[in-house]
Amino acid sequence: MKPHDAQPDRRNFLQHSLLGTAGASMALASTSHVTVAAEPDNQPTHEATISNHVDVLVVGGGTAGTIAAIQAGRTGAKTMLVERGSQLGGTMTTGGVAFPGLFDAWGKQVIAGIGWELVRESVELDGGELPNFAKVPQRHWQNQVYTNQFLYAILAEEKCHKAGVELAYYEFPQAAKRVADGWQVDCVGFGTQRRILCKQIIDCTGGAEVVGLLGFDRLREEVRQPGSMLFKIGEEHQPGREQVHRLYVHGADSSNSRTVTQANLTGRRSVLAKVRAEKKRLMHLQPETGFRESYRIVGETMVTVNDYTSGRQFDDAISNAFYPVDLHTKTGVRPKPLKPGTVPTIPLGALIPKGSRDLIVAGRCLCSDQLANSGLRVQASCMGMGQAAGVAASLAAQTGTTPMEVPLAEIHKVLREHGAIIPGKA
Amino acid sequence: MRRSFVSLLTAMTFLVIAVTGVLAFVRPFSMTIVGLHALMGFLFIGVVGFHLANNLRPLKRYLRSKWMWINLAVTAALTTAIAMQPQPVKALLGLSGNLGPALDRFELHDDGLTYQYTPAPHYKLTLSVRMGDAFDPADPPEFAIWIENSSFYHIRTLHRPESADNEASLPYWSFKVKEYEKAKLAAAAGVDVDAISGATKNSSFDPADYMLPVDPEEPMPYRILVEINQRGDANEAVDDQPSLIYSVEVDNSDPHAFQLLDLIGYPQLEEDEQPPQWAIYYVDQRFDSALELIDSALLTIDRDKPSD
Ligand SMILES: Cc1cc2nc3c(=O)[nH]c(=O)nc-3n(C[C@H](O)[C@H](O)[C@H](O)COP(=O)(O)OP(=O)(O)OC[C@H]3O[C@@H](n4cnc5c(N)ncnc54)[C@H](O)[C@@H]3O)c2cc1C
Fold this sequence. Notes:
The structure holds 2 protein chains of 2 kinds. By secondary structure, chain A is an alpha/beta fold. Helix content of chain A is 29%, strand content 20%. Chain A has helices at residues 3-6, 10-19, 63-74, 113-125, 149-162, 209-213, 257-278, 305-309, 370-376, 379-399, 408-417; strands at residues 49-59, 79-83, 104-105, 108-109, 166-169, 171-179, 182-189, 192-203, 218-219, 227-233, 245-249, 282-285, 296-297, 317-320, 328-329, 332-333, 345-347, 359-361. In chain A, the strands form 6 sheets. In chain A, strands 1, 2, 5, 6, 7, 8 and 18 form a 7-stranded mixed sheet that branches. In chain A, strands 11-10-12 form a 3-stranded antiparallel sheet, covered by helices on one side. Helix content of chain B is 37%, strand content 26%. Chain B has 2 domains: 3-94, no CATH class; 104-303, no CATH class. Chain B has a 6-stranded antiparallel sheet with strand order 5-4-6-7-9-10. Chain B has 9 helices and 11 strands. In chain B, helix 1 packs antiparallel against helix 2. Chain B has helices spanning 3-26, 31-54, 56-64, 67-84, 87-94, 166-169, 171-188, 199-202, 207-211, and strands at 104-109, 112-120, 123-131, 142-149, 154-159, 222-229, 244-250, 258-260, 262-270, 277-281, 294-303. The A-B interface holds A 106-108, 134-136, 138, 334, 339-340 and B 152, 251, 254, 262-265, 268, 279-284. The structure holds flavin-adenine dinucleotide (FAD). The site of flavin-adenine dinucleotide has 38 residues of chain A, from helix 3, strand 2, strand 10 and helix 10. Chain B: The chain crosses the membrane at residues 34-54, 66-84. Chain B: Keywords: Membrane, Transmembrane, Transmembrane helix. Chain B: This is DUF4405 domain-containing protein.
């Protein structure tokens, strides 16, 4: 049976398949069978070369990219999300860092919007608990939200689908160039080649891969913070309630397939050694090392550690951020808390690669020095940036301008309409 | 003076000196006991004067005997030995419950208070609290100052409130002290007090271990907390504003001479927890004058190089 013969309403079908629930016309209710939906653009799956024409292309469906894509879709932009891995969530899900933070500072929420919506819904569906933001945590991480990584990934897919975002897994850009109406980005996946024509690109690859591919300057420390391999040995594991163990993978670098391979091999080798030494059962292992640091862009604005720790209110602030300065080194980590009342902000300029047009980043690759980045890179902040980038890119696509030239008030207005908290107005 | 009167007075004053001397050795330092011992000592010197005058003749005889020289030699030898404090003498002194005059000093002034703690000659900690506009010297607020380890266990109270009804007035501090009593019992029974950061590093109850860690490579961070409460400070929102908690973290691996305490919140009972716990909540709009009790609290630490 050809997939598109099975269900004329593909959108509805896909949604139900993803949810694992059956519509009235589908005989799925009591069985565990689901049928793969047709390619959204009606392009047969067996064809090796396909093409898309979209307003906004988001590359990297991690912490920031997922939110950016959902926001761009909800703002009405035709949006495509290309992710080299097999699921959404990035470091949160594939890396296993399923404890996003911090959405609150000093007793009130400072980051909300789509990221919070997703986190909250996955906690609720999992029967988990949300922290009470009015309470002073003894440690900053106690207000992180313990989330079920598996649920988060599929809820994110559902939200992308509802926002009309087209997903392409196992693919990554191989070449990109400027064309009359924006960009031409050529992606490859195994057995697939895709040409995407888009007006705006949002680079959420963590390491600003597309920015690098386009030849813009990037920053990278000689000694990067370690990555972490997350695993669990011993007792039964309840995802979302109990958290997995971590071991530092020093030298971890997400820059390319070779460095990622090395980090994964090192991490897994150490886990194996640990299992042998402790003579316990291995209950859980993330498929990939969680990377803390690789490239950051050289942006129109650089957030320095002083900007961060003083809570500088940038004129073009688009989102709040909140976390201690949290540099991990060979000797471990001692987070340096922010002074009471301080809430750092993220300027739009830190998301724009210097001298670029029609290009914006979100996530840990924003323009910042290493110390500022150690606090800015956390998930709630990445989600806040992602949402802002989604708005800026889609408004730029609609009006034929570039994100930096979209009036800030417009960005703020749309962000507010979509539940985000604007700096200074929390 | 009458012989019988002087002899009896000499014996009795000696008895008081002997008893207070023993008490001063075995019990913690007490101004009453040490004061009694010292002042009775002066009286004793005077009475001995009369005693000598009454017994001049036999004494002269003693002074001329060979026992005089033997006595002198024994006394000199014992004095030198004890004064030089070799190991056995040290061990004996170690049995004393009197660790000398208190290492800490507390002073209340019109505009605030100063607390000083000197666990070693080269380490002096001073906490200066400047009172704010809502501080009324005629009806001062209750407050407690204490130290906690990095697992948030109370280590020692530096200043305790005068009122007996602390639980109502300073519930967070009272709760911490109770937890501490439990932890101390558990520690005495050999139970791991701090499962998170390892028992060895944090299970000490001596503040000096945190301020002067044995291994400088392994410093033990700690926090100083102040809980303050003016009872019955009603406003439009509440009949009595809850107590407020200020805190500062001290880390000897990252030394600062001056640090300000930050207001971290007010305590609230979490009844859902089993057993119920006191947690800290961020201050909200219910607070006004309570925020004005303390203007600022400055912690100063003078760390001179220890002399070898
Ligand atoms: C071990 C560890 C502990 C952490 N602890 C916390 C914590 O306690 N709380 C907290 O909030 N944050 C924490 N963080 C930080 C936080 O998780 C990350 O910084 C944040 O998730 C990064 O988000 P991102 O969107 O920038 O990148 P990612 O989430 O890494 O997303 C990047 C995505 O892009 C994809 N991608 C990469 N290159 C390409 C390409 N060329 N083409 C297509 N797709 C590509 C990746 O597969 C990935 O899905 C931790 C991080 C680590 C590693």
